[in-house]
Hints:
Number of domains of chain B: 2
CATH architecture of the largest domain in chain B: 3-Layer(aba) Sandwich
Distance between the termini of chain C: 52 Å
CATH class of chain C: Mainly Alpha
CATH architecture of chain C: Orthogonal Bundle
Order of helices and strands of chain C: HHHHHHHHHHHH
Oligomer: heterotrimer
Strand content of chain C: under 5%
CATH topology of the largest domain in chain B: Rossmann fold
Order of helices and strands of chain B: EEEHEEEHHHEHEHEEHHEEEHEEEEEEE
Amino acid sequence: MRLDLLGQKALLFFGSLLFVLYVLAPIAWLVSSSLQSEAEITSVPPHWVPQQPTIENFQAIFTAKDKVVTYENRKQGDPATGGFIPSTASNLLPSMWNSLLVALAVVVLNLLVSVPAAYALAKIRFIGRSTSIYFMLSTRVIPDIALVVPFFLFIHKLGLLDTLSSLVITYLAITVPFSIFILTNYFESLPDELDKAARVDGCSRLQTMLLVYLPLALPSLVAVVLFTFLTSWNELLLALMFTQTPAAQTMPIVVASFTSDFSISFSFINAAGVLAIIPPVIVAVVFERYIVSGLTAGAVKG
Amino acid sequence: MARIRFESVGKQYPNGFVALKDFNLVIEDKEFLVLLGPSGCGKSTTLNMIAGLEDVSEGSLFFDDELMNITPPHKRDVAMVFQSYALYPNKSVYDNIAFGLRMRKHPREEIDRRVRDAARRLEIEPLLQRRPDQLSGGQRQRVALGRAMVRQPQVFLMDEPLSNLDAALRISMRAEIKQLHQAMQTTFVYVTHDQAEALTLADRIVVMKGGVVQQIGSPDAIYERPANMFVAAFLGNPSINFLDGQLIERQGQLKFQRGSLTLALPPMAQQCLAGQAGREVVLGMRAEDVETDGPTGEDGIEGRVLSVLPVGSDQFLEIEVEGVKTFLRVGKEGKHRLGEPARLRVNLNRLHLFDKQSGSNLMYPA
Amino acid sequence: MKNPLAAVRGAWRYPVSAYDQKSAMWLLSPMLVVLMVVAVFPVIYSFWVSLYDLKLTRPHRVPFVWFDNYLKIFADPLFWESVTRTASFTVMSVTAIMVIALLMALLLNQEFRGRRVLSAILLIPWAIPYVANGLMWKWIYDSGYGALNGLLLQLGLIDKYLVMLGDVNKTMGLITNAFVWKEVPLATILILVTLKSIRADLYSAAKVDGANVWQRFLHITLPALVPGFALVMIYEAMMAIRHFDLFFILTEGGPAEASHVLAWQVYVETFRKLAFGTGSALAYIMAVATFMLAFFIIRSTSRKL
Lengths: 302, 366, 305
């Protein structure tokens, strides 16, 4: 009996260790690399822990705006290491700002669209209800790729190419089905009788939704906000299509451009990578419990 | 303040299920009406239609001669207490009770006054700042009552509000609800499947089964003169005893016969069923109308004791009569042993006779 | 004073209140508008475009070519290669994801201290953008200075640095690994959710009946897991089929088309060659294929239920 318990604990311990290693090792390496100078980073075999940690890479990103990188300039780069700062470096911070604006806009609009729809689908019996549900589910199946051409032509016609609004519209379109799905599930798990009580108490359907159900759906609302924010923040393909100038580019595009630049400073790229992942990681870690509980339908007491 | 009228109302669900058919009912103002029946009989559906939570498929619903079919619930002046109380979990007791008044834009001082008034009457004043999950079942129930009370509505609806309470609480709450009705002077419509509750509370009872009204009447009328076998069996605890048999004529008098059992019938029966000897009928005997000190001979009933169930103040006897198991309630003085023969005496004037085919009452046709 | 809405006495009207219908429509209208844009519009429009030979390089001459684009695609050997490649990528990644996610979910399902910490850590790969993911792995896989090479060297498994992403034989495997690493968290959570919904008293009953850990897993956990598992599989398969970002960042379809998958082909066709007609047709084929796959899986798993 004792052995069994010990064996279980050992198994758990090993399992956890493997788990953590699998998940964190690549990230740890990313962070470690970002703190190494160009010289150190190119050592063979690599230094797993930086022996001379430096924040010059991060500094380079933040000051890149001030230094206009020209062709001659580029060649000079950082002579000590032989690495170069990508010509698009100065765009990184502005593009993160763009990403943030777009993500926030999408989250707000998403909620405005999804919450009423989810409430109606979950709590109101009406003609066309099951049709609406199937319709909504089937749109989820369409791959983003299929949206490329029609959206491009559509946005082009609207003259919205290369603006942030084009991104907001398209991201809205791809995040809404999933949000509605999650919210509807959650609303369905909330007791029906609250709806009846509120309506008898004098609430119209809209008021019932806002005053009674919304406060109760907090976990799944948070989950939806997170999903929407992250999808928006991370999206690459559509952003690639719709934006051409740095004014409207979002973070993934700029980061992607680093990798295709001809001669690159590895440490710089890693630093850029770290910057790019900080907001999502913080958001995910802070809201971890909501993500899980928002995906499951919770039970409501009373 | 509100006279509710159902005119040929029907309700059918999209899947074809018919919950109500050709329902006609007038609920008088200030009346305490109870809708009684087994689950699925349509009583909750009827209540929901008054509230506006369910739509009327066919027919018309009137409040004081105003057609209400398409009016949504928040525009009607009804209040409702639910079986599961349906309190808003994230609001305090105070906010729960005040909610309806706030939605209807009453001034703040008035809301406060009414809420505290109701809380005092229901003895939940100290709980006003608590939340529902911090309350016991009985307390939650009072909050639910309070929420409905403060609205001072035209109609007060209750959907099996006491079923989730334990037995002792249930009895005391019945009395409180009765008092509430007196104090509020409003129409009360109450749904339950508990016949004792119905008998205690109602001014009138509507007995329903399968979407069809079986009988409407005062508790006394329904108990004493049930319209059919279903109503007779539904009310009364223990359930009424039925004996199949037929009418025979002896010496110019109609009697009930089953096997070797012959029973005289009350004058009412002689009148209504004159000349119908040979008709197949069902005799109904309530448990409390039978005693075990029966005479021998023709007016007595012979039987054998199958079981004895003491219940504190009385005892229940299960006695087999002519192959049928009957239940009697007698005082606890009598000593009876299993397997013993027994002679029963029944109060003739309290016998019921029903038609074997339709089950309807032969002496007091509905 | 009959009900004005009832047509004929005895005729059953559909029992939905007009108010409910109206308010539902209002609440639903924003969603319908959005879905029209994302579902109906692209499907119809892209089909329409695929019937034309639309090339942005010569935007003024747009001949209507019926299904020519489709025929051209089906005749192209590269297309079929990418189909196979996409298929094998999907199968490999989904298998890996499901296995790893299941193990992790089983681990997280146990009660132990620090479980929340693990849970939070788990979310990190899911949260980071695909571009960052690509960047990270590109650096790890780097042929000159990458960590993978370094690790293998230090472990003595190789004696000099190998070409990684540039190697035709290795590249798909490496991309798969990067993809799996990022997808595992979500799959784990979804499986975990399913695991948690299994009633605890079933396990108690089984323990009393004498079942050991393995038997309990086999008879209780596994059967209850099937529907949720299938759902996650479908979702991950769809993500794999349509995946673009890693192929863009890591290899751009190379080397020598070794990682040329369907999504990449659509991109090339549409944005490098600017042939919107064929690009559309390709996208449409992909969409239809994905749809049918999902439909097929749902059908076959719901029969098992």
